[in-house]
Amino acid sequence: MAKRFISAADPVLPGGIKVPRYLRPGDTISITCPASAVDAKDLEQCKTLLEQWGYRVKYGNTVGQHWQRFGGTDAERAADVQRLLDDSKTDAIMFGRGGYGIMRMMDKLNWSGFLKHPKWLIGFSDITAFHCHAHSALGVATLHADMGSGIRLPEDDAARSLKRALSGQAMRYHAPAHKLNRYGTATAPLVGGNLSLIYAMQGSKSALQTDGKILLIEDVSEYKYTVDRMMMNLKRSGKLDNLAGLVVGGFTATKEDTETSFNMTMEEVIFEKVQGYSYPVCFNFPSGHQKQNMALKLGCYHQFEVLKNGTSLSETLLPSAPATGIDTLKWMPDSTIIPLDTAQFKMDSTRLLGGHL
Q: Helix count (H) and strand count (E) of the chain?
Protein backbone atom coordinates (compact mmCIF):
# COMPACT_ATOMS: atom_id res chain seq x y z
CA MET A 1 0.00 0.00 0.00
CA ALA A 2 1.54 3.31 -1.06
CA LYS A 3 1.89 5.94 1.63
CA ARG A 4 -0.35 8.98 1.22
CA PHE A 5 0.66 12.40 2.52
CA ILE A 6 -1.39 15.16 4.07
CA SER A 7 -0.49 18.82 4.07
CA ALA A 8 2.14 19.88 6.59
CA ALA A 9 0.20 23.13 6.95
CA ASP A 10 -2.87 21.20 8.06
CA PRO A 11 -1.55 18.28 10.17
CA VAL A 12 -4.92 16.73 10.96
CA LEU A 13 -5.48 13.07 10.14
CA PRO A 14 -8.82 11.54 9.15
CA GLY A 15 -10.92 11.30 12.30
CA GLY A 16 -9.66 14.69 13.49
CA ILE A 17 -6.42 13.53 15.13
CA LYS A 18 -3.98 16.44 15.40
CA VAL A 19 -0.32 15.66 14.82
CA PRO A 20 2.12 17.83 16.82
CA ARG A 21 4.88 19.60 14.93
CA TYR A 22 7.97 17.47 14.41
CA LEU A 23 11.18 18.74 15.99
CA ARG A 24 14.05 20.63 14.39
CA PRO A 25 17.61 21.12 15.66
CA GLY A 26 17.59 23.76 18.38
CA ASP A 27 14.11 22.85 19.64
CA THR A 28 13.63 22.27 23.36
CA ILE A 29 12.57 19.02 25.03
CA SER A 30 11.50 19.52 28.66
CA ILE A 31 11.58 16.65 31.15
CA THR A 32 9.09 16.43 34.03
CA CYS A 33 8.17 13.77 36.59
CA PRO A 34 4.38 13.38 36.85
CA ALA A 35 4.60 9.90 38.39
CA SER A 36 7.61 8.31 40.16
CA ALA A 37 10.46 10.41 41.50
CA VAL A 38 13.58 10.87 39.35
CA ASP A 39 16.83 12.58 40.34
CA ALA A 40 18.79 14.69 37.89
CA LYS A 41 21.72 12.25 37.93
CA ASP A 42 19.43 9.57 36.50
CA LEU A 43 18.63 11.79 33.53
CA GLU A 44 22.16 12.83 32.58
CA GLN A 45 22.68 10.16 29.91
CA CYS A 46 19.34 11.00 28.34
CA LYS A 47 20.17 14.72 28.42
CA THR A 48 23.54 14.12 26.80
CA LEU A 49 22.02 12.02 24.02
CA LEU A 50 19.22 14.49 23.28
CA GLU A 51 21.81 17.28 23.07
CA GLN A 52 23.90 15.17 20.70
CA TRP A 53 20.80 14.97 18.50
CA GLY A 54 20.73 18.77 18.38
CA TYR A 55 17.99 19.52 20.93
CA ARG A 56 18.04 21.73 23.97
CA VAL A 57 17.03 20.01 27.21
CA LYS A 58 15.30 21.68 30.13
CA TYR A 59 14.38 20.07 33.46
CA GLY A 60 11.02 20.72 35.04
CA ASN A 61 10.64 21.68 38.70
CA THR A 62 9.77 18.13 39.72
CA VAL A 63 13.13 16.63 38.70
CA GLY A 64 14.77 15.75 42.01
CA GLN A 65 11.58 16.27 44.02
CA HIS A 66 10.35 13.51 46.35
CA TRP A 67 7.02 13.10 48.12
CA GLN A 68 5.90 9.62 49.15
CA ARG A 69 6.86 7.59 46.07
CA PHE A 70 6.19 10.45 43.69
CA GLY A 71 8.13 13.30 42.07
CA GLY A 72 6.51 15.85 44.35
CA THR A 73 2.98 16.26 45.67
CA ASP A 74 0.03 15.82 43.34
CA ALA A 75 -0.34 19.60 43.13
CA GLU A 76 3.38 20.13 42.44
CA ARG A 77 3.47 17.49 39.71
CA ALA A 78 0.33 18.87 38.07
CA ALA A 79 1.69 22.43 38.22
CA ASP A 80 4.93 21.35 36.56
CA VAL A 81 3.18 19.54 33.72
CA GLN A 82 0.77 22.46 33.29
CA ARG A 83 3.63 24.94 33.04
CA LEU A 84 5.28 22.88 30.30
CA LEU A 85 2.01 22.31 28.41
CA ASP A 86 1.60 26.09 28.27
CA ASP A 87 5.26 26.99 27.76
CA SER A 88 5.81 28.38 24.26
CA LYS A 89 9.54 27.61 24.57
CA THR A 90 8.94 23.88 25.18
CA ASP A 91 8.54 21.99 21.91
CA ALA A 92 8.08 18.46 23.34
CA ILE A 93 7.57 16.99 26.80
CA MET A 94 9.43 13.86 27.86
CA PHE A 95 8.45 12.18 31.12
CA GLY A 96 11.13 11.10 33.56
CA ARG A 97 9.72 7.77 34.67
CA GLY A 98 6.49 5.81 34.85
CA GLY A 99 5.62 3.66 37.85
CA TYR A 100 2.49 5.17 39.35
CA GLY A 101 1.00 8.61 39.90
CA ILE A 102 -0.56 10.03 36.72
CA MET A 103 -4.11 9.19 37.78
CA ARG A 104 -3.65 11.16 41.00
CA MET A 105 -2.89 14.44 39.23
CA MET A 106 -4.21 14.33 35.66
CA ASP A 107 -7.62 15.87 36.47
CA LYS A 108 -5.87 19.01 37.75
CA LEU A 109 -4.63 19.81 34.23
CA ASN A 110 -6.14 22.32 31.81
CA TRP A 111 -5.50 21.15 28.25
CA SER A 112 -6.88 24.18 26.39
CA GLY A 113 -3.47 25.70 25.59
CA PHE A 114 -2.10 22.31 24.57
CA LEU A 115 -5.01 21.83 22.15
CA LYS A 116 -4.21 25.13 20.45
CA HIS A 117 -0.52 24.26 20.15
CA PRO A 118 -0.05 20.47 20.51
CA LYS A 119 3.40 19.15 21.33
CA TRP A 120 4.70 15.60 21.52
CA LEU A 121 4.17 13.83 24.86
CA ILE A 122 6.83 11.11 25.18
CA GLY A 123 6.68 8.09 27.46
CA PHE A 124 5.11 4.72 28.21
CA SER A 125 4.03 2.56 31.17
CA ASP A 126 2.07 4.80 33.60
CA ILE A 127 2.21 7.54 30.93
CA THR A 128 -0.42 5.46 29.10
CA ALA A 129 -2.97 7.42 31.16
CA PHE A 130 -1.93 10.53 29.22
CA HIS A 131 -1.91 8.60 25.94
CA CYS A 132 -5.48 7.41 26.52
CA HIS A 133 -6.69 10.88 27.47
CA ALA A 134 -4.88 12.58 24.58
CA HIS A 135 -6.42 10.20 22.05
CA SER A 136 -9.96 9.80 23.37
CA ALA A 137 -10.63 13.19 24.97
CA LEU A 138 -8.31 15.53 23.05
CA GLY A 139 -7.69 13.96 19.66
CA VAL A 140 -3.91 14.52 19.69
CA ALA A 141 -1.19 12.08 18.63
CA THR A 142 1.47 11.09 21.20
CA LEU A 143 4.69 9.08 21.32
CA HIS A 144 4.85 5.72 23.07
CA ALA A 145 8.60 5.48 23.68
CA ASP A 146 11.38 5.31 26.23
CA MET A 147 11.58 8.01 28.90
CA GLY A 148 14.31 10.06 30.54
CA SER A 149 15.46 7.51 33.10
CA GLY A 150 15.47 4.66 30.57
CA ILE A 151 17.47 6.22 27.73
CA ARG A 152 21.14 5.32 28.00
CA LEU A 153 24.40 5.91 26.20
CA PRO A 154 25.45 4.71 23.74
CA GLU A 155 22.17 4.99 21.83
CA ASP A 156 20.49 1.72 20.98
CA ASP A 157 17.78 0.73 18.50
CA ALA A 158 14.98 2.04 20.71
CA ALA A 159 16.69 5.40 21.13
CA ARG A 160 17.38 5.68 17.41
CA SER A 161 13.73 4.95 16.69
CA LEU A 162 12.76 7.83 19.02
CA LYS A 163 15.21 10.13 17.26
CA ARG A 164 13.68 9.34 13.88
CA ALA A 165 10.11 9.59 15.16
CA LEU A 166 10.72 13.04 16.67
CA SER A 167 12.12 14.32 13.38
CA GLY A 168 9.10 13.10 11.42
CA GLN A 169 10.48 10.05 9.68
CA ALA A 170 8.03 7.23 9.05
CA MET A 171 8.80 3.95 10.76
CA ARG A 172 8.29 0.35 9.75
CA TYR A 173 8.84 -2.45 12.22
CA HIS A 174 8.91 -6.22 11.88
CA ALA A 175 8.25 -8.87 14.51
CA PRO A 176 8.85 -12.63 14.22
CA ALA A 177 6.21 -15.22 13.45
CA HIS A 178 4.39 -16.68 16.46
CA LYS A 179 2.23 -19.79 16.63
CA LEU A 180 -0.77 -17.81 17.93
CA ASN A 181 -0.54 -14.99 15.38
CA ARG A 182 -3.73 -14.55 13.35
CA TYR A 183 -3.07 -13.52 9.78
CA GLY A 184 -4.63 -10.49 8.16
CA THR A 185 -4.12 -6.84 7.25
CA ALA A 186 -5.57 -3.56 8.47
CA THR A 187 -4.94 0.17 8.11
CA ALA A 188 -6.16 2.22 11.07
CA PRO A 189 -5.01 4.49 13.91
CA LEU A 190 -2.76 2.83 16.49
CA VAL A 191 -3.80 3.34 20.14
CA GLY A 192 -3.08 1.79 23.51
CA GLY A 193 -0.02 1.13 25.65
CA ASN A 194 0.18 -0.43 29.10
CA LEU A 195 -2.68 -2.86 29.72
CA SER A 196 -2.98 -2.02 33.42
CA LEU A 197 -3.50 1.66 32.62
CA ILE A 198 -5.93 1.00 29.77
CA TYR A 199 -7.89 -1.06 32.30
CA ALA A 200 -7.58 1.69 34.96
CA MET A 201 -8.97 4.31 32.53
CA GLN A 202 -12.16 2.31 32.00
CA GLY A 203 -15.31 4.16 33.05
CA SER A 204 -13.57 7.56 33.10
CA LYS A 205 -13.52 10.47 30.67
CA SER A 206 -10.10 9.17 29.59
CA ALA A 207 -11.35 5.69 28.66
CA LEU A 208 -9.68 4.52 25.47
CA GLN A 209 -11.86 4.45 22.36
CA THR A 210 -10.94 1.29 20.46
CA ASP A 211 -13.55 0.81 17.72
CA GLY A 212 -11.85 0.64 14.33
CA LYS A 213 -8.38 1.00 15.93
CA ILE A 214 -5.27 -1.14 16.09
CA LEU A 215 -4.81 -1.76 19.82
CA LEU A 216 -1.33 -2.07 21.35
CA ILE A 217 -0.99 -3.75 24.75
CA GLU A 218 2.03 -4.51 26.93
CA ASP A 219 2.71 -4.96 30.64
CA VAL A 220 5.26 -5.90 33.28
CA SER A 221 5.35 -7.71 36.64
CA GLU A 222 1.82 -9.08 36.43
CA TYR A 223 0.37 -12.45 37.35
CA LYS A 224 -1.32 -14.34 34.56
CA TYR A 225 -4.61 -14.16 36.44
CA THR A 226 -4.45 -10.34 36.65
CA VAL A 227 -3.83 -10.14 32.89
CA ASP A 228 -6.73 -12.55 32.45
CA ARG A 229 -8.96 -10.30 34.56
CA MET A 230 -7.96 -7.13 32.69
CA MET A 231 -8.49 -8.77 29.30
CA MET A 232 -11.89 -10.07 30.45
CA ASN A 233 -12.79 -6.50 31.40
CA LEU A 234 -11.90 -5.27 27.92
CA LYS A 235 -13.85 -8.12 26.38
CA ARG A 236 -16.97 -7.67 28.52
CA SER A 237 -16.97 -3.89 27.99
CA GLY A 238 -16.85 -4.31 24.20
CA LYS A 239 -13.36 -2.83 23.79
CA LEU A 240 -12.21 -5.89 21.83
CA ASP A 241 -15.33 -6.31 19.66
CA ASN A 242 -14.56 -3.92 16.81
CA LEU A 243 -10.78 -3.67 16.70
CA ALA A 244 -8.96 -3.35 13.38
CA GLY A 245 -6.13 -5.39 14.90
CA LEU A 246 -4.32 -6.32 18.12
CA VAL A 247 -0.57 -5.81 18.66
CA VAL A 248 0.75 -7.63 21.74
CA GLY A 249 4.08 -6.27 22.94
CA GLY A 250 6.21 -7.52 25.81
CA PHE A 251 4.66 -9.07 28.89
CA THR A 252 7.87 -9.21 30.89
CA ALA A 253 8.91 -10.15 34.44
CA THR A 254 5.73 -12.19 34.82
CA LYS A 255 4.98 -13.12 38.43
CA GLU A 256 4.37 -16.70 39.48
CA ASP A 257 0.95 -17.42 40.93
CA THR A 258 1.74 -19.19 44.23
CA GLU A 259 -1.89 -19.96 45.08
CA THR A 260 -3.07 -22.13 42.21
CA SER A 261 -1.52 -23.06 38.91
CA PHE A 262 -2.53 -21.22 35.74
CA ASN A 263 -1.52 -23.69 33.04
CA MET A 264 -2.08 -21.37 30.10
CA THR A 265 0.82 -19.33 28.78
CA MET A 266 0.54 -15.55 28.93
CA GLU A 267 0.02 -15.50 25.17
CA GLU A 268 -2.76 -18.07 25.45
CA VAL A 269 -4.43 -16.02 28.20
CA ILE A 270 -4.54 -13.04 25.84
CA PHE A 271 -5.48 -14.91 22.67
CA GLU A 272 -8.38 -16.66 24.39
CA LYS A 273 -10.15 -13.29 24.73
CA VAL A 274 -9.91 -12.49 20.99
CA GLN A 275 -10.11 -15.92 19.39
CA GLY A 276 -13.75 -15.40 18.42
CA TYR A 277 -12.94 -12.39 16.23
CA SER A 278 -11.38 -12.23 12.78
CA TYR A 279 -9.00 -9.24 12.91
CA PRO A 280 -5.21 -9.73 12.74
CA VAL A 281 -3.33 -10.41 15.97
CA CYS A 282 0.42 -10.55 16.57
CA PHE A 283 2.56 -11.42 19.57
CA ASN A 284 6.12 -10.49 20.63
CA PHE A 285 6.08 -7.05 19.06
CA PRO A 286 9.12 -4.96 20.16
CA SER A 287 7.32 -2.57 22.51
CA GLY A 288 7.06 -2.42 26.28
CA HIS A 289 9.20 -2.87 29.39
CA GLN A 290 12.16 -4.34 27.57
CA LYS A 291 15.33 -3.26 25.82
CA GLN A 292 13.64 -3.08 22.42
CA ASN A 293 10.91 -0.55 23.20
CA MET A 294 10.50 0.99 19.79
CA ALA A 295 8.96 4.44 19.37
CA LEU A 296 5.35 4.37 18.13
CA LYS A 297 3.16 7.33 17.15
CA LEU A 298 -0.13 6.64 18.90
CA GLY A 299 -3.15 8.16 17.18
CA CYS A 300 -1.42 8.00 13.79
CA TYR A 301 -2.46 5.64 11.01
CA HIS A 302 -0.52 2.42 10.53
CA GLN A 303 -0.68 -0.44 8.08
CA PHE A 304 -0.66 -3.70 10.03
CA GLU A 305 0.18 -6.97 8.27
CA VAL A 306 0.37 -10.35 9.98
CA LEU A 307 1.67 -12.99 7.61
CA LYS A 308 3.06 -16.50 7.91
CA ASN A 309 6.64 -15.24 8.02
CA GLY A 310 6.02 -12.47 10.59
CA THR A 311 4.44 -9.11 11.26
CA SER A 312 5.00 -5.62 9.90
CA LEU A 313 3.63 -2.35 11.30
CA SER A 314 4.15 0.66 9.05
CA GLU A 315 3.13 4.27 9.58
CA THR A 316 0.97 5.61 6.76
CA LEU A 317 -1.17 8.71 5.99
CA LEU A 318 1.79 10.90 6.82
CA PRO A 319 2.24 14.66 7.05
CA SER A 320 4.43 15.96 4.22
CA ALA A 321 7.94 14.56 4.41
CA PRO A 322 10.60 16.66 6.13
CA ALA A 323 13.59 17.88 4.17
CA THR A 324 15.59 14.77 5.05
CA GLY A 325 12.97 12.53 3.46
CA ILE A 326 10.95 9.63 4.76
CA ASP A 327 12.90 6.63 5.96
CA THR A 328 11.18 3.25 5.98
CA LEU A 329 12.95 1.17 8.57
CA LYS A 330 13.45 -2.37 9.71
CA TRP A 331 14.17 -3.34 13.29
CA MET A 332 16.73 -5.96 14.18
CA PRO A 333 17.93 -6.67 17.74
CA ASP A 334 21.34 -5.39 18.86
CA SER A 335 22.07 -3.72 15.55
CA THR A 336 21.55 -0.41 13.87
CA ILE A 337 18.21 0.49 12.32
CA ILE A 338 18.84 0.50 8.59
CA PRO A 339 16.79 1.14 5.43
CA LEU A 340 14.63 -1.78 4.35
CA ASP A 341 16.03 -1.90 0.87
CA THR A 342 19.49 -2.74 2.22
CA ALA A 343 18.41 -4.97 5.09
CA GLN A 344 18.32 -8.73 5.27
CA PHE A 345 15.38 -9.51 7.52
CA LYS A 346 16.49 -11.28 10.65
CA MET A 347 14.80 -11.56 14.01
CA ASP A 348 15.59 -13.62 17.07
CA SER A 349 12.52 -13.64 19.28
CA THR A 350 14.43 -14.83 22.31
CA ARG A 351 16.15 -11.42 22.47
CA LEU A 352 12.89 -9.68 23.33
CA LEU A 353 12.93 -10.65 26.98
CA GLY A 354 15.65 -8.39 28.38
CA GLY A 355 14.63 -4.92 29.50
CA HIS A 356 14.29 -2.30 32.17
CA LEU A 357 11.52 -1.27 34.53
A: 9, 19
Integer distance in angstroms from the first to the last C-alpha of the chain? Answer: 36
Distance CA(128)–CA(109), nearest Å, equals 16
CATH superfamily of 19-155: Murein tetrapeptidase LD-carboxypeptidase, N-terminal domain (3.40.50.10740)
Cα 152 to Cα 42, 46, 146, 158, distances in angstroms: 10, 6, 10, 10
**CB of 35 within 8 A of CB of 126?**
yes
**pLDDT tens for each residue of 318-344:** 654 443 333 333 333 322 222 222 222
pLDDT of residue 254: 85
Dihedral sign (CA 44, 45, 48, 54): negative
**What superfamily in CATH does domain 172-353 come from?**
LD-carboxypeptidase A C-terminal domain-like (3.50.30.60)
Q: Answer whether 164's CB lies under 8 Å from 329's CB.
A: yes
Compute the residue count for the chain. 357
Residue at 347: amino acid letter: M
Taking residue 325's Cβ as centre, other Cβ atoms within 10 Å add up to 9
The residues spanned by each domain of the chain are 19-155, 172-353
